[in-house]
Write a structure and sequence with these properties.
8 helices; binds pyridoxal-5'-phosphate; single chain; PyrdxlP-dep_Trfase_small; phosphoserine transaminase
Length: 378
Protein backbone atom coordinates (compact mmCIF):
# COMPACT_ATOMS: atom_id res chain seq x y z
CA UNK A 1 0.00 0.00 0.00
CA UNK A 2 1.38 3.43 -0.94
CA UNK A 3 2.22 5.57 2.06
CA UNK A 4 1.34 9.23 1.78
CA UNK A 5 3.25 11.79 3.79
CA UNK A 6 0.74 14.21 5.34
CA UNK A 7 1.04 17.87 4.40
CA UNK A 8 -0.02 19.68 7.57
CA UNK A 9 1.97 19.57 10.81
CA UNK A 10 0.87 20.37 14.38
CA UNK A 11 1.81 23.93 15.33
CA UNK A 12 2.82 22.54 18.73
CA UNK A 13 4.13 18.94 18.89
CA UNK A 14 4.16 18.83 22.73
CA UNK A 15 1.82 16.00 23.76
CA UNK A 16 3.67 14.96 26.94
CA UNK A 17 1.57 13.83 29.90
CA UNK A 18 3.55 15.96 32.29
CA UNK A 19 4.97 18.49 32.32
CA UNK A 20 2.24 19.26 29.79
CA UNK A 21 2.02 21.90 27.08
CA UNK A 22 1.74 25.53 28.18
CA UNK A 23 -1.53 27.39 27.50
CA UNK A 24 -1.65 28.43 23.84
CA UNK A 25 -1.17 32.13 24.66
CA UNK A 26 1.82 31.57 26.96
CA UNK A 27 5.21 33.19 26.40
CA UNK A 28 8.10 33.94 28.75
CA UNK A 29 6.85 37.50 28.81
CA UNK A 30 3.83 36.52 30.95
CA UNK A 31 6.21 35.99 33.88
CA UNK A 32 7.47 39.57 33.93
CA UNK A 33 5.45 40.57 37.03
CA UNK A 34 6.89 37.74 39.17
CA UNK A 35 8.26 39.24 42.41
CA UNK A 36 11.70 37.74 41.88
CA UNK A 37 14.31 38.30 44.57
CA UNK A 38 11.56 39.14 47.05
CA UNK A 39 10.48 37.14 50.09
CA UNK A 40 7.42 34.96 49.66
CA UNK A 41 6.50 36.25 53.12
CA UNK A 42 6.54 39.90 51.96
CA UNK A 43 3.11 41.36 51.19
CA UNK A 44 3.65 41.01 47.44
CA UNK A 45 4.53 37.32 47.74
CA UNK A 46 1.70 36.54 50.13
CA UNK A 47 -0.80 38.27 47.86
CA UNK A 48 0.29 36.21 44.85
CA UNK A 49 0.09 32.96 46.83
CA UNK A 50 -3.36 33.87 48.16
CA UNK A 51 -4.50 34.81 44.66
CA UNK A 52 -3.34 31.37 43.42
CA UNK A 53 -5.47 29.72 46.12
CA UNK A 54 -8.50 31.97 45.49
CA UNK A 55 -8.40 31.49 41.72
CA UNK A 56 -8.01 27.72 42.15
CA UNK A 57 -11.19 27.74 44.24
CA UNK A 58 -12.94 29.94 41.71
CA UNK A 59 -12.03 27.94 38.58
CA UNK A 60 -12.58 24.51 40.16
CA UNK A 61 -15.75 25.48 42.06
CA UNK A 62 -14.34 24.28 45.38
CA UNK A 63 -16.79 24.91 48.29
CA UNK A 64 -16.02 27.89 50.56
CA UNK A 65 -15.58 25.67 53.64
CA UNK A 66 -12.86 23.50 52.01
CA UNK A 67 -9.21 24.45 52.69
CA UNK A 68 -6.80 24.75 49.77
CA UNK A 69 -3.05 24.64 50.39
CA UNK A 70 0.08 24.97 48.28
CA UNK A 71 2.48 22.31 49.56
CA UNK A 72 5.99 20.99 48.80
CA UNK A 73 6.93 18.21 46.39
CA UNK A 74 4.22 18.40 43.77
CA UNK A 75 1.32 15.97 43.67
CA UNK A 76 3.42 13.24 45.30
CA UNK A 77 4.11 15.53 48.25
CA UNK A 78 0.42 16.33 48.62
CA UNK A 79 -0.68 12.66 48.49
CA UNK A 80 2.05 11.57 50.91
CA UNK A 81 1.28 14.34 53.40
CA UNK A 82 -2.40 13.35 53.34
CA UNK A 83 -1.70 9.65 53.84
CA UNK A 84 0.87 10.20 56.59
CA UNK A 85 -1.32 12.72 58.41
CA UNK A 86 -4.71 11.00 58.21
CA UNK A 87 -4.40 7.23 57.86
CA UNK A 88 -4.29 4.71 60.68
CA UNK A 89 -7.37 5.94 62.53
CA UNK A 90 -9.59 3.21 60.97
CA UNK A 91 -9.29 0.43 58.36
CA UNK A 92 -8.02 1.55 54.95
CA UNK A 93 -8.85 0.38 51.43
CA UNK A 94 -6.12 1.04 48.87
CA UNK A 95 -7.37 1.20 45.30
CA UNK A 96 -5.28 1.08 42.10
CA UNK A 97 -5.61 0.32 38.42
CA UNK A 98 -2.27 1.65 37.14
CA UNK A 99 1.21 2.67 38.18
CA UNK A 100 0.69 5.77 40.33
CA UNK A 101 -2.19 4.27 42.33
CA UNK A 102 -0.05 1.18 42.80
CA UNK A 103 2.68 3.41 44.22
CA UNK A 104 0.31 4.72 46.90
CA UNK A 105 -0.70 1.14 47.79
CA UNK A 106 2.91 0.18 48.25
CA UNK A 107 3.67 3.28 50.35
CA UNK A 108 0.82 2.61 52.77
CA UNK A 109 1.51 -1.10 53.15
CA UNK A 110 5.32 -1.14 53.05
CA UNK A 111 6.25 2.26 54.53
CA UNK A 112 3.40 3.14 56.89
CA UNK A 113 2.90 -0.60 57.53
CA UNK A 114 -0.87 -0.29 57.69
CA UNK A 115 -2.73 -3.55 57.07
CA UNK A 116 -4.86 -2.04 54.35
CA UNK A 117 -7.01 -4.11 52.02
CA UNK A 118 -5.87 -3.91 48.40
CA UNK A 119 -8.30 -3.40 45.53
CA UNK A 120 -6.34 -3.69 42.30
CA UNK A 121 -7.28 -3.97 38.64
CA UNK A 122 -5.07 -4.41 35.63
CA UNK A 123 -4.27 -1.67 33.08
CA UNK A 124 -7.32 -0.84 30.98
CA UNK A 125 -9.79 -1.90 33.67
CA UNK A 126 -11.08 -0.17 36.79
CA UNK A 127 -11.93 -1.22 40.32
CA UNK A 128 -15.66 -1.33 41.10
CA UNK A 129 -15.65 1.88 43.16
CA UNK A 130 -19.29 1.46 44.19
CA UNK A 131 -18.50 -1.87 45.89
CA UNK A 132 -16.03 -0.33 48.40
CA UNK A 133 -16.85 0.27 52.07
CA UNK A 134 -16.89 4.04 52.57
CA UNK A 135 -17.05 3.76 56.33
CA UNK A 136 -13.40 2.85 55.98
CA UNK A 137 -10.84 5.25 54.49
CA UNK A 138 -10.32 4.92 50.73
CA UNK A 139 -7.22 6.07 48.81
CA UNK A 140 -7.50 6.16 45.02
CA UNK A 141 -6.50 7.97 41.84
CA UNK A 142 -9.30 9.69 39.92
CA UNK A 143 -7.65 9.53 36.52
CA UNK A 144 -5.07 6.81 35.99
CA UNK A 145 -2.54 8.78 33.98
CA UNK A 146 -0.61 5.70 32.83
CA UNK A 147 -3.65 3.63 31.76
CA UNK A 148 -6.04 6.30 30.51
CA UNK A 149 -8.82 5.00 32.75
CA UNK A 150 -10.85 7.30 35.01
CA UNK A 151 -13.63 7.02 37.56
CA UNK A 152 -17.05 7.12 35.90
CA UNK A 153 -20.48 7.74 37.39
CA UNK A 154 -21.13 8.64 41.00
CA UNK A 155 -19.86 5.72 43.09
CA UNK A 156 -19.05 7.47 46.40
CA UNK A 157 -21.84 7.91 48.98
CA UNK A 158 -22.32 11.37 50.49
CA UNK A 159 -23.14 9.90 53.92
CA UNK A 160 -19.83 8.00 54.40
CA UNK A 161 -18.00 8.06 57.73
CA UNK A 162 -14.55 7.21 56.31
CA UNK A 163 -12.39 9.67 54.40
CA UNK A 164 -11.72 9.57 50.65
CA UNK A 165 -8.20 10.59 49.64
CA UNK A 166 -8.11 11.25 45.91
CA UNK A 167 -5.08 11.79 43.69
CA UNK A 168 -6.70 13.92 40.98
CA UNK A 169 -3.57 15.28 39.37
CA UNK A 170 -4.46 14.37 35.78
CA UNK A 171 -8.19 15.03 36.29
CA UNK A 172 -8.31 18.46 37.96
CA UNK A 173 -9.25 21.24 35.51
CA UNK A 174 -10.45 18.75 32.85
CA UNK A 175 -13.01 16.57 34.60
CA UNK A 176 -15.81 17.14 37.11
CA UNK A 177 -14.67 16.38 40.64
CA UNK A 178 -17.55 15.87 43.12
CA UNK A 179 -16.22 17.91 46.04
CA UNK A 180 -18.83 16.59 48.49
CA UNK A 181 -17.51 13.08 47.84
CA UNK A 182 -13.81 13.95 48.20
CA UNK A 183 -12.20 14.61 51.59
CA UNK A 184 -8.66 15.12 50.35
CA UNK A 185 -7.96 16.00 46.74
CA UNK A 186 -4.47 16.54 45.36
CA UNK A 187 -3.01 17.79 42.11
CA UNK A 188 -0.06 19.68 40.69
CA UNK A 189 0.28 22.65 38.36
CA UNK A 190 2.05 20.96 35.46
CA UNK A 191 -0.74 18.76 34.15
CA UNK A 192 -3.99 20.21 32.73
CA UNK A 193 -2.92 23.81 33.42
CA UNK A 194 0.50 23.41 31.81
CA UNK A 195 2.14 24.99 34.87
CA UNK A 196 5.52 24.31 36.40
CA UNK A 197 6.47 21.29 38.53
CA UNK A 198 7.42 20.97 42.23
CA UNK A 199 4.38 22.56 43.88
CA UNK A 200 1.47 20.45 45.08
CA UNK A 201 -2.11 21.42 45.85
CA UNK A 202 -4.07 19.83 48.67
CA UNK A 203 -7.81 20.40 49.11
CA UNK A 204 -9.29 19.40 52.48
CA UNK A 205 -12.97 18.86 53.31
CA UNK A 206 -14.24 19.94 56.74
CA UNK A 207 -14.35 16.26 57.78
CA UNK A 208 -10.69 15.74 56.92
CA UNK A 209 -9.79 18.83 58.96
CA UNK A 210 -11.77 17.34 61.86
CA UNK A 211 -9.72 14.13 61.55
CA UNK A 212 -6.47 16.13 61.45
CA UNK A 213 -7.40 17.97 64.63
CA UNK A 214 -8.55 14.89 66.53
CA UNK A 215 -6.17 12.13 65.47
CA UNK A 216 -2.41 11.90 65.92
CA UNK A 217 -0.72 9.15 63.92
CA UNK A 218 1.70 6.93 65.85
CA UNK A 219 4.61 7.58 63.44
CA UNK A 220 6.97 10.59 63.28
CA UNK A 221 5.78 13.42 61.01
CA UNK A 222 8.37 15.22 58.85
CA UNK A 223 8.07 19.01 58.91
CA UNK A 224 6.99 19.18 55.27
CA UNK A 225 3.97 16.93 56.02
CA UNK A 226 2.82 18.77 59.15
CA UNK A 227 -0.57 20.50 58.83
CA UNK A 228 -1.36 20.84 62.55
CA UNK A 229 0.26 22.37 65.59
CA UNK A 230 -0.91 21.60 69.13
CA UNK A 231 -3.93 19.72 67.77
CA UNK A 232 -5.09 22.67 65.62
CA UNK A 233 -4.92 23.10 61.87
CA UNK A 234 -2.18 25.52 60.80
CA UNK A 235 -4.62 27.84 59.02
CA UNK A 236 -1.82 29.95 57.53
CA UNK A 237 -0.90 27.15 55.11
CA UNK A 238 -4.34 27.55 53.54
CA UNK A 239 -3.94 31.31 53.10
CA UNK A 240 -0.62 31.12 51.29
CA UNK A 241 1.80 30.95 54.21
CA UNK A 242 3.57 27.94 52.74
CA UNK A 243 5.43 25.38 54.87
CA UNK A 244 8.67 26.16 53.07
CA UNK A 245 9.83 28.42 50.24
CA UNK A 246 7.88 28.26 46.98
CA UNK A 247 9.15 29.50 43.62
CA UNK A 248 7.50 32.84 42.91
CA UNK A 249 8.33 32.31 39.23
CA UNK A 250 6.25 29.11 39.24
CA UNK A 251 3.47 30.88 41.17
CA UNK A 252 3.37 33.63 38.53
CA UNK A 253 3.19 30.99 35.83
CA UNK A 254 0.29 29.19 37.58
CA UNK A 255 -1.51 32.53 38.01
CA UNK A 256 -1.18 33.12 34.27
CA UNK A 257 -2.69 29.69 33.56
CA UNK A 258 -5.60 30.35 35.95
CA UNK A 259 -6.33 33.72 34.33
CA UNK A 260 -6.15 32.06 30.90
CA UNK A 261 -8.65 29.44 32.11
CA UNK A 262 -11.03 32.14 33.29
CA UNK A 263 -10.63 34.12 30.07
CA UNK A 264 -11.73 31.18 27.91
CA UNK A 265 -14.80 30.35 30.04
CA UNK A 266 -13.52 28.56 33.13
CA UNK A 267 -13.91 24.90 33.99
CA UNK A 268 -16.62 24.21 31.38
CA UNK A 269 -14.34 25.47 28.62
CA UNK A 270 -11.36 23.52 29.95
CA UNK A 271 -13.43 20.31 30.03
CA UNK A 272 -14.78 20.95 26.53
CA UNK A 273 -11.28 21.41 25.14
CA UNK A 274 -10.07 18.13 26.67
CA UNK A 275 -13.22 16.32 25.52
CA UNK A 276 -12.78 17.56 21.93
CA UNK A 277 -9.12 16.49 21.89
CA UNK A 278 -9.85 13.01 23.22
CA UNK A 279 -12.84 12.62 20.91
CA UNK A 280 -10.66 13.34 17.86
CA UNK A 281 -8.40 10.43 18.87
CA UNK A 282 -11.31 8.11 19.70
CA UNK A 283 -12.82 8.83 16.27
CA UNK A 284 -9.47 8.04 14.67
CA UNK A 285 -9.25 4.69 16.51
CA UNK A 286 -12.86 3.81 15.65
CA UNK A 287 -12.00 3.94 11.95
CA UNK A 288 -8.73 1.93 12.14
CA UNK A 289 -8.40 -1.79 12.89
CA UNK A 290 -4.81 -1.57 14.12
CA UNK A 291 -5.14 0.76 17.12
CA UNK A 292 -7.50 0.89 20.08
CA UNK A 293 -7.98 2.49 23.48
CA UNK A 294 -6.31 0.75 26.40
CA UNK A 295 -9.46 1.58 28.41
CA UNK A 296 -11.75 -1.41 27.95
CA UNK A 297 -14.99 0.32 28.97
CA UNK A 298 -15.70 3.44 26.90
CA UNK A 299 -17.36 5.14 29.90
CA UNK A 300 -14.03 5.09 31.76
CA UNK A 301 -11.88 6.52 28.96
CA UNK A 302 -9.78 9.46 30.09
CA UNK A 303 -10.17 12.77 28.26
CA UNK A 304 -6.66 13.84 29.35
CA UNK A 305 -4.19 10.94 29.24
CA UNK A 306 -5.42 9.02 26.21
CA UNK A 307 -3.64 5.65 26.21
CA UNK A 308 -3.61 3.53 23.05
CA UNK A 309 -2.50 0.01 22.12
CA UNK A 310 -1.59 -1.43 18.74
CA UNK A 311 -3.75 -4.42 17.80
CA UNK A 312 -2.41 -5.46 14.37
CA UNK A 313 -1.66 -9.23 14.40
CA UNK A 314 1.39 -8.65 12.18
CA UNK A 315 3.17 -6.92 15.09
CA UNK A 316 5.59 -9.40 16.69
CA UNK A 317 7.28 -7.27 19.37
CA UNK A 318 4.67 -4.85 20.69
CA UNK A 319 7.04 -2.81 22.84
CA UNK A 320 9.61 -2.33 20.08
CA UNK A 321 6.89 -1.44 17.58
CA UNK A 322 5.31 1.21 19.82
CA UNK A 323 8.71 2.67 20.63
CA UNK A 324 9.57 2.87 16.93
CA UNK A 325 6.33 4.72 16.17
CA UNK A 326 6.91 7.23 18.97
CA UNK A 327 10.48 7.70 17.77
CA UNK A 328 9.44 8.31 14.14
CA UNK A 329 6.95 10.97 15.23
CA UNK A 330 9.51 12.60 17.49
CA UNK A 331 12.21 12.67 14.80
CA UNK A 332 9.73 14.28 12.39
CA UNK A 333 8.91 16.91 15.06
CA UNK A 334 5.25 15.85 14.95
CA UNK A 335 4.69 14.50 18.47
CA UNK A 336 7.06 14.60 21.45
CA UNK A 337 6.98 12.25 24.45
CA UNK A 338 4.05 10.06 23.43
CA UNK A 339 5.47 6.65 24.33
CA UNK A 340 3.48 4.74 26.98
CA UNK A 341 4.64 5.14 30.60
CA UNK A 342 7.55 2.85 31.47
CA UNK A 343 5.47 0.48 33.68
CA UNK A 344 2.39 0.49 31.42
CA UNK A 345 1.56 -1.91 28.57
CA UNK A 346 3.27 -1.10 25.25
CA UNK A 347 1.57 1.63 23.26
CA UNK A 348 1.16 5.39 23.05
CA UNK A 349 -0.07 7.99 25.51
CA UNK A 350 -1.21 11.27 24.00
CA UNK A 351 -2.00 14.13 26.35
CA UNK A 352 -5.33 15.77 25.54
CA UNK A 353 -5.66 18.20 28.47
CA UNK A 354 -7.04 21.70 28.05
CA UNK A 355 -3.81 23.38 26.93
CA UNK A 356 -3.68 21.17 23.83
CA UNK A 357 -5.27 22.57 20.67
CA UNK A 358 -7.66 20.19 18.87
CA UNK A 359 -6.19 21.43 15.58
CA UNK A 360 -2.81 20.06 16.71
CA UNK A 361 -4.31 16.65 17.54
CA UNK A 362 -6.03 16.67 14.14
CA UNK A 363 -2.81 17.59 12.36
CA UNK A 364 -0.88 14.89 14.24
CA UNK A 365 -3.24 11.95 13.58
CA UNK A 366 -2.54 11.56 9.82
CA UNK A 367 1.12 11.28 10.80
CA UNK A 368 0.19 8.42 13.12
CA UNK A 369 -1.26 6.67 10.06
CA UNK A 370 1.96 7.47 8.22
CA UNK A 371 4.19 6.18 11.04
CA UNK A 372 2.13 2.99 11.41
CA UNK A 373 2.20 2.17 7.71
CA UNK A 374 5.90 2.97 7.44
CA UNK A 375 6.78 0.83 10.44
CA UNK A 376 4.59 -2.14 9.54
CA UNK A 377 6.21 -2.20 6.08
CA UNK A 378 9.72 -1.81 7.46
C1 LIG B 1 -1.83 10.00 38.83
C2 LIG B 1 -0.51 10.59 39.17
N1 LIG B 1 -0.15 10.68 40.46
C3 LIG B 1 1.04 11.21 40.81
C4 LIG B 1 1.92 11.67 39.88
C5 LIG B 1 3.22 12.26 40.33
O1 LIG B 1 3.10 13.61 40.21
P1 LIG B 1 4.21 14.66 40.65
O2 LIG B 1 5.38 14.41 39.77
O3 LIG B 1 3.51 15.97 40.43
O4 LIG B 1 4.52 14.40 42.07
C6 LIG B 1 1.59 11.63 38.53
C7 LIG B 1 2.52 12.11 37.49
O5 LIG B 1 2.36 11.94 36.32
C8 LIG B 1 0.34 11.08 38.17
O6 LIG B 1 -0.01 11.00 36.89
Amino acid sequence: MAITTPGARPANPRFSSGPCAKPPTWSLDVLKDAPLGRSHRAAVGKEKLKEAIDLTRDVLGIPADYRIGIVPASDTGAVEMAMWSLLGERPVQMVAWESFGAGWVSDVIKQLKIEASEHIEDYGHIVDMAALDYDQDVVFTWNGTTSGVRVAGDPIPANRTGLTICDATSAAFAQDLPWDKLDVTTFSWQKVMGGEAAHGMIVLSPRSVERLENYTPPWPMPKIFRMTKGGKLIEGIFKGETINTPSMLCVEDYLFALHWAKSIGGLDALKMRADANAQAIWNFCATRDWIDNLAVNAATRSNTSVCLKFTDPRIKDGAAFAKAIAKRLEVEGIALDIGAYRDAPAGLRIWCGATIETSDIEAMLPWLDWAFQTEINA
